[in-house]
């Protein structure tokens, strides 16, 4: 007997693994490696959907969109989307999703082997037909450097199956002093764990049922506070969500300037291997790894008297004058004049730093110009094109100053 005509299509749909990457205008470069997770997905995924308007240009210009790429990238401009819920409702309306898929944020940096996570998700689905999602979490101290300050989560898990039976988002303000949990949880699960030592990696393995649930519940906006909490507290839906706890891999999300700094330092320290600068994951990169965790591209002009300390990245086109000292910093392609000290800073494209300046633990965005004898103390943020006001008469001795050319 001949096989059914649609059998080949069904097999193809099952074999193609899809991923939805939520991109945003806030996605910025980390230590020379942009945190767009296509590099993390290349060995696990066949089709990637960058959602929300912002990441589309970067996806089209990347090598992953070339004809020889193992990935098929489809960009979806959800111009009216204001939340993850809006994006998933848009996906449901377009009927792009036809099997289990990976859902992750575009500002995640991770070297997790997602194939193992996917296998575990499929095994759970074979024993629990109501399982619709697996949340990837990483075991870490509550005070870990990659945790966003003021944000944490409490996961209540079944000790044997890692089923998430309760989820609570904990914010700094107002301070939460208690957690309310249904007694039904204790009746159904004899052994549970209440965990505050898990970093939410913002990587989820979702079943095809997830987008329609967002459509049915139009008030779901946030994937955790609304969707996960709503599913776990609903007696009518009867769906289950699991956690996959990772111990021996790296995953973190750039949520703030604090996590931007922490993750960038981790990239330079090679905790994110193979996502490191000298693997040159982006087209046109030419980084070389040197002793002391120094990364330098070609076409760089360094004076003989300049000093590069540990954890320094120097991008192509950088020019560094005499007696410059740089430590723990990411330098894109600026001009740095003589007698300048830079420690723990991020110097972006087209920056010009004149003589005798000092910059400590700050960010200088594209095309910033510092006149001579300027001090930029720790925690300062100078936005793109700031130049005229940055002179020796206007020192940034006050910490955590934010300066831009337009009102903030």
Could you tell me the strand content as a percent range?
Answer: 25-35%
Unreliable segments of 5+ consecutive residues = 26-40, 42-57
Give the number of helices: 9
- CA distance, first residue to last residue: 70 Å
Which structural class should the secondary elements be placed in?
A: alpha/beta
Radius of gyration: 24 Å
Gross CATH architecture of the largest domain: Alpha-Beta Complex
Question: Into how many domains do the coordinates divide?
Answer: 2
Oligomer classification: single chain
Estimate the helix proportion, in percent. 10-25%
The largest sheet, given as strand count, sense and whether it forms a barrel, is: 10 strands, mixed
CATH structural class of the largest domain: Alpha Beta
- CATH topology descriptor of the largest domain: Spore Coat Polysaccharide Biosynthesis Protein SpsA, Chain A
- Could you tell me the mean pLDDT? 82
Strand order of the largest sheet: 3-2-1-4-10-6-11-8-7-9
CATH superfamily of the largest domain: Spore Coat Polysaccharide Biosynthesis Protein SpsA, Chain A
In total, how many beta strands? 30
